[in-house]
Each structure stands twice: as C-alpha cells, then as structure tokens.
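F.,

This is the one I mentioned.
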C-alpha cells in the first residue's frame, strides 16, 4: 500500500480542490440525511460537504491512517473511518456517495460502481471525479523510465464514458457524465514533478525499495518532466490535466 503524505498532497491543495467544488456544484440534493466521502484523504473536501449540509451525518472513509489522522485533527464533527473501499459496507443506505480523485486507484469498475449505486437510498446520488490524464507526459514518463512492462507502471484505469453509462444508466433517473481539462498555472522549480510526487508518483516511489535505484529513477523522471513541461518566460509552468466527472441520480 502506498504511504500517502498529506503535506505533500496538499502542496497544490487549491488546484486539487477546484474539481471537487465543480463536482459539488452539480449535486441535485437539498437536505441529505447521511453522506459519505470515499477516499476522503486529509478531509478538506469532506469538511466542505459538512459545510454544505450541516445537519447531515457526514462520514469520511480512507485507507490511509496518516491522512485520517490529519482529518481528525483539523475537522471535528465528522465520522472518520479507516477501511478499504472495495470491501466497505455501510451500516445503512445513504443519500450521497461522493468521491473526489480516488476511485481510479481501484479496479473492476464494472463491479464497483454498480455496487456503490446499490448503497444509495432511492433518490440518492453517486458523485465521482477521477483524473483521466494517464496518456499525458506526467504518466508516460514513468513508463519511459521504468520500461513499459515494469509492474509499477501506471495503467489506464478510467474506462470510456460509454462504459459507465451502460453500467449505471438502467438504475439511474438521471446520469450526467462529462470531462474537463484544467490548465493549472504552477510556480517553482519543476513543479509538475512535485505535483505528481503527491499522487501518481507516490506508489512508484514506495514500490522501489532500493534507495539508490529510487534516486536514479526520480532524477530521470524529473528530467523528462522538466522537458515535457518547460517554464514560460515569466517562470510559471502550465499543466493541462483532464478529469472525468459523473453524477448519478438513483431511481
């Protein structure tokens, strides 16, 4: 299991927050009684859900004890549960399952997503945002350095929009699916490499056990990323980043 560092992840907290806010704005619920944030991380987005619906029971679920430790410290009044999403079973059906930048880490979406939909009450909502940037240099550079057949190479975990529609539409009153490419304006020395170190690169670095090999890999990766995402004349670096969104209103 990757060891998630909340401080590294939150280095670009505002940029990572925007897709969650865009997803939140599309949820057609007025007064849900219970809601769950799957893959809640350090709890920043979960706290926004609590702010949006202060009278609801809000539950944050994550498998990382470090992330949950920070969530508990910074955001009281929310139930924080450490568990594996793939085996999670709620004690009762809920009105909203929200997941921001988490479910792409899990496989078998054809089984997982209908299962999550089944955990909702009638009229409940499944709202999901996942990165869909896996063909970009941020991820391709990992394959180039490690070799395409290396077991630590990232795959392409997000399926085609048509697949999610076919899996979920029969049980939905309404199903909205869209994609957005954000262009993040970053500052610093090789900031895109720092961005991926907080997310996509984390499992790779954790998986390379030899310290020397890890250092060689990271140096080679950072060099490729600096070439793929060069700074502009003003010193800023642009990172285009595509994301997948889905809001399902259950029948």
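My design for it:
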């Amino acid at each position: 299991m990757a060891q998630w560092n909340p401080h590294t992840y939150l280095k670009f907290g505002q940029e990572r927050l925007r897709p969650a806010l865009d997803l939140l704005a599309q949820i057609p619920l007025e007064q849900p009684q219970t809601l769950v944030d799957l893959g809640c991380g350090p709890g920043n987005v979960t706290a926004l859900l609590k702010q949006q619906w202060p009278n609801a029971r809000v539950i944050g679920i994550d498998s990382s004890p470090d992330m949950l430790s920070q969530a508990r410290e910074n955001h009281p009044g929310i139930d924080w549960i450490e568990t594996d999403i793939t085996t999670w079973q709620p004690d009762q059906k809920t009105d909203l399952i929200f997941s921001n930048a988490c479910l792409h880490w899990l496989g078998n979406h054809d089984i997982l997503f209908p299962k999550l939909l089944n955990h909702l009450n009638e009229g409940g909502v499944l709202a999901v945002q996942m990165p869909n940037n896996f063909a970009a240099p941020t991820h391709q550079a990992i394959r180039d350095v490690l070799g395409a057949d290396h077991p630590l190479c990232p795959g392409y975990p997000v399926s085609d929009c048509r697949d999610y529609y076919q899996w979920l539409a029969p049980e939905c009153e309404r199903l909205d699916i869209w994609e957005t490419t954000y262009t993040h304006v970053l500052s610093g020395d090789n900031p895109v490499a720092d961005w991926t170190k907080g997310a996509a690169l984390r499992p790779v670095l954790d998986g390379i056990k030899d310290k020397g090999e890890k250092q060689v890999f990271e140096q080679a990766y950072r060099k490729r990323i600096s070439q793929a995402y060069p700074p502009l004349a003003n010193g800023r670096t642009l990172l285009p980043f595509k994301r997948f969104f889905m809001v399902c209103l259950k029948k």
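The chain has one domain: 6-250.

Talk soon.
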